Each structure stands twice: as C-alpha cells, then as structure tokens.
Amino acid sequence: MPESSLGFISPEVKDTCSSSVECRSPPLIQFSQSSVPLHRNYILSTFCTEHNVQECLSHINQEVSSLGLPPVWTESSGSSEMNVMAVLNCMYDLIQLHHRGLRTLENMEVEQLKSSSNVDHLQRTSTQLKEQLELSKRGNTGLLERERQLHLKVKSLQNCLKNEKDEVQKLQNIIASRASQYNHEMKRKEREFTKLKERLNQLLVDKKEKKQAIDVLNNIGRADGKRSLWKTQKTEAKHEGEMYKTLLSDYDTRQREMLLENAELKKVLQQIKKEMVSILSLRKPIRKDDKHPDAGIQADSEDEEQVFDSSKESVGLFSVHAREKLTNSIRLQWRRLKSHVERLDSQASLAQMGENKTDDAISRETHEEEMDRLKLEIQPCKDFIQTQQQLLQQQLSSPCDEETTSLLSNCYMLQERERFREEWKTLEKQRNLFERERRNCTEAAIRLSHERKAFEDDRAVWLKHQFLNLSPFADLRKPQMSKSKSCFLISETESSASSAPEKLIKCRSDTTSPTPRCVPLTSASTADMHRTVCLVPEKRSTKPNGKTDHVEESRLFCNGNVPEQHEQWNNREDHSSQTLLMESTCSI
Amino acid sequence: MNFSEVFKQSNQLCKVSPDGKYLATCVQYRLVVRDVSTLQILQLYTCLDQISHMDWSSDSLFILCAMYKRGLVQVWSLEQPDWHCKIDEGSIGLVSSRWSPDGRHILNTTEFHLRVTVWSLCTKAVSYIKYPKACQKGIDFSRDGCYMALAERRDCKDYVSVFVCDDWHLLRHFETETQDLAGLEWSPNGCVLAVWDSCLEYKVLLYSLDGRLLSAYSAYEWSLGVKSVTWSPNSQFLAIGSYDEKVRILNHITWKKITQFEHPSSINNTKAVVYKEVEKRTAVGSDDLSLHITIGTALYNTRSKYEICPSPVQIPVVKPDPDRANPKIGVSSLAFSSDSRYLATKNDNMASVVWVWDMQKMSLVAVLEQTSAVRCFQWDPCRPRLALCTGNTTLYLWSPAGCVSVQVPTEGGFQVQSLNWHRSGDSLMLLGKEQLCLCYMDTDQEDNIREFTATK
C-alpha cells in the first residue's frame, strides 16, 4: 500500500517538478529556509507505524529533499519532536505542487487536444492541397496535351501553307507558260489573219463586177469655202507648225495658270510671313522678360530686314533670290513660332501640373481630414449606441432574475427606458446628421474637382485664345469668344495692333506709360505722357522702360506669385486700357 | 415639265442636228427631218434599204444614212433636197460609217477591218487607210476637228496614226506600248491622247499630240483591267473605270492618281445622300403630294418616287458568273458633268445604282438606287443635272438640289430605253423601243426639285 501510494504520488510530483522546471523556474526557494521538525503522530497511514517513525522520517526527509524542499526534520534539532510548522509547510508545498501539477496536466491536456485538432486540421488541409495539386497536375497535363496538339496543328498548317505556296508557284509557272504559248499562237494566227486579209483585199480590188463607187449629183464645196491644196512639203511643214502651235498654246495656258497659282501662293506666303512677324513682334517684349535679350535683338534686326523686304516685294517677287529669302525667312519665323508655341505649351502644362498638385493636395487633404474626423466621431457614437442597446436588451430580457427588484424598480425602469429611448433618438438624429455631413463633404469634394476641371478648361481655352489672339485672325474670332471681358479687350487690342504696323508701334510705346490703375488719379499727367509718346513713336528707346514697367505692374497685380502668362496677360490688359485711354486722350 | 406627242422611229436612230435646230429620225427605210421647236416635218427622204446608221454632218447640212447589209451609204442635203449622193462599198462590205469633222468626207470601215475608205464629197476622191484595228474605240477625232487618231495593227504590234483631218496628211505614226490596244481618246483640249490596253492588262498610256509618251499608268496586274475611260470636259481629270469596281482619277499635270472611288455594297458614308426608288401602287385619284399630280398622270397605278435612306445602306449586288467572258462586274459607264464638277458612274454588278461623285471634294455625293437596271444616263450639257432611264415608263433626274422621278404621260406604256439631251439643256429626247418623245424641261425646274426635297 505505501509503495503503491508512493508509487502513485512520486511520479506525479516528479512530473510536476519536471513540468515546472520545464515551464518556469520553481518558486520553491522561499520554503527552503524554513526547517521545521516533523511530528511523528501525524503520520497515521500504514506507511508509518509506531516503530518505524525514524525510518519514515528519514525516508520522507530524503524524499522531500530530493524534491528540493527543505527537510522536514533535522538531526541537529536532536529530539524526536518534529517541527510541525515545517511539516505543514512541506505539506502545503506538496499540495501546492500537486495542484500545480494537476493544473499543468489540465493545460497539457487542453494543449494536446488543441494540437490534435490542429493536426487534424493540418491533415485535412494537406489532403485538400494534395487534391488540389492532383487537380492542377491533371490540368497541367491537359494543357500540355493541348499545346502539343496545337503544335501539331501549326506544323500541319505550315506544311499546308508550304504546299499551297508550292502549288501557287506551280500554277504561276503554268500560267506563264500558257500565256507565252498563247501569245505565240495569237501572233501566228494574227499573221495568218493579216495574210488572209491582204489576199482578200487583193481579190476584192481585182474583182470587176461590183466595184466601189461614189455617185454624187454635183460636188459640194468645202466647209471653209477654200479649195483643197496639193500635198507638198510646204503643207507638211505647215501641219507640223500648226501642231506645235497648238501644243505650245496648251503649254502656254498651262504655264499661265501655274503662274497665277504661284502668285497666289506667294501672296499667301507673304501674308503668312507678315502675320508671323506681327505675332512674333508682339510677343517680343514678353520674350525679353525671360532671359533672351540677345535673341530679341536678333529678331529686331531681322524684323527690320523683313520690313525692308516687304517694301520691295513687288519687285523681288519673281527673282530667285527674293524667293529664297522669302522661304528662308518664313522657315525661320515658323521655327521661332513653333518654339514659342512649344514653350507656351510646356509652360501651360507645367503650370497645370503645379496647380494640379496644389489643388489636389488641398482638396484631398481637407476631404480626408474631414472624413477621418467624422469617422472618429461616428465610432464612439456607435459604441455608445451599442452598449445602450445591450443594456436595454438585458433589462428587457432578464426581469425574471430579479423579480422583486423589478417590481420595485418597475416605474423607475420605465422612466429610464423612456429616457434611453429619447437618448437613442437624439443619437440617431446625430448619426443622420453626421451621415448628411459626410455626404455633403463628399459632394463638396466632387464639386471642387469639377470646378478645378472647369477652371483648367477655361485656362486652356484662354491660353488658346491668347495664342490665337496673337494672330491677326483675332478679329475674325471675336464673336466666338466673349467669355470674359478681359479676353474680349485683349482681342480688340490685338486686332487693332495687328491691323496696322504704325498702330502696333504706338501700342508698344503706350506700354511705357505708368500703371493704368492710377489713371484716375493722375489722368492729366498720363495724358501728357501719351501726347509726348505719340509724338515720338521711337520704339527702341522706349522699350526697356516699358519692359521694367510691365514687370512691376504685373507684380503689383498679382503679388508676384502668378506664372508668366499672367504677366503677359496683364500686359495685354495694359494694352487694352492704354488704347482705351488713348482714345480718350485723343478726344480730349 | 412637258412632253411632246410620240413619234415612230426604228433602231433608235434619232438625232438632233449639231446646231440644235432639226431632229432626224429613221423609220424603216425613210428618213424624216423635223423642226425641233415645232416638230413639223421639213423633209422626208427615202433610202434604198432599212437604215442601220444615221448621222448628221458637223455643219448640220447633210445627213448620212448607212445600210451596212447592202454596203451602201446615202447622203442627203437639207438645203438641196434634190441633191443626193450614194457610196457603194461593193463586195468589200461595210461595218461602220462616219463623218469626218469637216462634214465633207465620209470614213467607211470595211468588213474585217481591211481598211478605212475616205470618200470626199468635194472631189469624189477616195483614199484608203490600211491596217485599222478592230477594237472598242479605234478612231477618235479631236474636239476641234483638226486631228484624227487611228489605232492600227501591224506585225502583231499596235500603232497609232495621227492624221490631219484637213487633207488626211499623216502627221505622226508611233508604236504604242500595249499588248492589245483596246481604245484611244483625245483629251478635250486635243493635246493628249489616252490609249488603253485590253481588259487583260491594266494599262493606260498618255501620248502627247506629237507622239511623245507622257506617262503610263497601271493600277494593278494579273486581274482584268480597264473597262472604261473618260476625260473630264476641262481636260484636268482622266477617269478610269476598271473591273475591280473602282474608278481612278488621274490628274493632268503629273498623270498620277489623285484618288480612287470605290463602289462598296454597303454605304456608310454619312455625307452621301442615298436616294432609293420605291414603287407605289396607289389608287387613281389619291391625293399624293408628289410631283406626279402636277404632271397629271393618273393613268398608271404604279408610281415611283425617291426616298432618302439613312446612312448604312445595303446595295443589291449580283455576283457575276466567273465562267463567262466579259463578266458583268466593274465600272462600265463614266460621265462627267459639263462643268466637270460631278462624275456619274455605274458599276455593272450593281446595275440598278448610279453613283454621283463630287470632283471638288473628291467624295461621294449621291447614290441613286433604282428598282431596275439603269439603261442609260446622261448629263445636261449646260447644268449639273443628270438624266437617267431604266427601261420603264419613268424618267429620273438628279441635281445637287435633289432627285425627281417623272412618269412619261403617254398611252401604251412608253418605255424609255435611252435618252439624249438637247444641246441647250432645255429638252430631252426619250427613245423607246419603236417610239420617241421629247421632254421639255420647265425653266423653274430647280424650284420644283427644291420643293420636292423640301417635302421630304
């Protein structure tokens, strides 16, 4: 019996020990100091009798120490008296150990269950995966088979193609040979045919009885009333001459037509050139603004050359040199215009991109922020609602648990329920509000993006117009674009500017005047200025001043953080206002 | 639009004189000359046999009547009814007879194209041109009547001879780079001669008056080639219709192709107007709003009118028999309007359709889909107005303003087989099988058409 119990206990203890050792460091050190002598009377099991107390004690002591617990009894204390406290402590420790062992066992069992279920699951998944693998393998083989078949098909088709090609070649050869044979036959037949014709002709001519004849009552005169002429060398020459005459006249008319066409084209070219020059000269001040002063000067000199050219264009229209010059100048102008347009384009795209970024960032950021904020607000509300709901449900579902209390607090409950309901309602309302707000927010975001797009479109149109307005066709386009007043004004000035070079110069000189904003304040002085300017339309001297003025003005207008086009635009506005001003001063 | 009464004719031999004053018709072996304006008979001549060909001289003074079976040509004078002339080609035979441009010579082509006999009415002189080629169009006179181009065949090679019509002096004689020359045609200004090969090979050659080769054009090889060739009246375009159902337009400066007009069976072109003829069997006296009321023909129950079809239109196509020679496919008829602005074409496997192209925009303008095959179409010599007939009792007119169909109001079902404009463009000669009838255009025709289109 003691063996059995010992046998029963010891492995457990060992187990727990080992497990505890395994799991974590044993917290038994606290017991090691306490050495309490064991009391012999306490051991009443068959393991211990009156006689073998000492042995039992030593045995237990041994056992306990082997378990790493403080000894129950020490020889040094001398007596047979056991330290009860020590024993009890030991017992307690043992029980603790036992409990712990049981707990770990339980844990282990649970763990084992878990792991076994895990294993099951894994096995299941593995079988599934195996099946899948099988399936995919099958699919793969099927595909491979198909590929093989297709390859075979391709091969057979290629063979077919080859055969067909061969066939075609063969047939072509046959056709060619037949054609040559046929041609040969034809020729032979034709020769025979002509021979027969000759023979027939001979026979018919020789035949006596039915000859060709003409029977005319009296000869009639020629349609032109002249008599027919003998065939002589002279007539032959005359015919040749006439033939060449008709040919010559034909060529002549054609040449004349081409000349006309050429003249037309040249006119068009001249016009194009003029327009280009005007456009380029218009944009020159702007160009000077941006770090190409030498180019501007170059253009100036060319400008003069062109003016010189156009003055004698009527003379030089037909000379080769003039033509070359014209084409070259047009090419040059065109290149410049192209580069200008490209530059404008790139600028526009750059500006667009920049705007895109800023615009986008702002809108998206605000939008997202708002969204986040709303979400954050919504979350606690939802939680709150949920808890309330739960509480309500609990209260509603479990009144039987506390029948007495329910009876007592029924009225209170009802009241509270009312209150809850109201609160619920307000919360609902709040939620709705939030929802609406969120919707509004998204709508606003959408609207914002729309607006941005519209704005960009507008700007593209404006850019286009601005570019087009640079050309003298602007007055043609005028009715189309009356989108904004400023644009309209620009077009007006452009058209007026491009219509006559003198006026153009005037306009340019006008730009030297001080800011149009202060016109009402200093109208008299500006008018004087204008008068002086009009009297002296020297463009070169006035130009640099004008340039600096523009820049300042533009800065004044747009606080310096607007892209270059805006400057330009403002310049145009200046032009317009200036021209208007001009008129007023003239009227004065 | 008014119609004259119906006259008899045979072999569709009816011609208005070049000056537009007289109308000559052949009835069996009689030749009747009428005044165009009054339709009164002015002269009546009797020939020796049934007339197989009749033609006016360029000065409208003489008429030749050829009787090919007898090898005979009789010439009549309008001014001197007693004057007569008879040319007998004898046993050598006669297949073709025509006036020279001066109206004083007659060119007879003998049987088997043995030779061309030139008879002078002034001197009774006769001259021969040997080796004429039997082909689609072997002889052509320039528009001003100065030159004649003749296709010849010698030693299995094609040649072209250019004669001065004044005294039949051989001006130029040159070999052409053709396998089997099929036809030749002078440009209207008389400076360029277009020569094309037989349908076995797509080849168009352009020769100057002095025999220089200006250009050669070939669109493709191997399949059947050129079917028809036409110059525009201003000599700027040469339209070539071919068996591949396309018309190619060459320009007069580089002689390269400007564009090509295709004749697809389904029309997706939204810019072209598709007029479809629909026949309606209406009760007599129904108040139809179409033009027929104004003409006053309540005699026939079948009436046709045009409807405008919306864009994707499927055109009936007849597949040609590949085993037969001269397959019914390709563009066989081409005609420029007098101002060279429009080109009308007909594709043989879509025989009931006439296509009208704009030569300025180089695009399709209109498609007229008839209920039956188009027999004949011709442009008004003064206006851009196209008249066509399909062998039924209706006359069809197209102009840029619109399209009308007009019933010919004659008893006994006058079936219009062919038509000819008067040179003034005011009247139109309609030829039936055995009859003829004149159709007088209203001067406010355009307004009518406009009204008609407005009602659509």
Automatic annotation (TrEMBL), chain B:
InterPro entries: Centrosome-WD_assoc (IPR052778), Quino_amine_DH_bsu (IPR011044), WD40/YVTN_repeat-like_dom_sf (IPR015943), WD40_rpt (IPR001680). One of its GO terms (cellular component) is microtubule organizing center. It comes from the Eukaryota. SMART domains: WD40. SUPFAM superfamilies: YVTN repeat-like/Quinoprotein amine dehydrogenase. Pfam families: WD40. This is WD repeat containing, antisense to TP73. It comes from Cyclopterus lumpus (Lumpsucker).
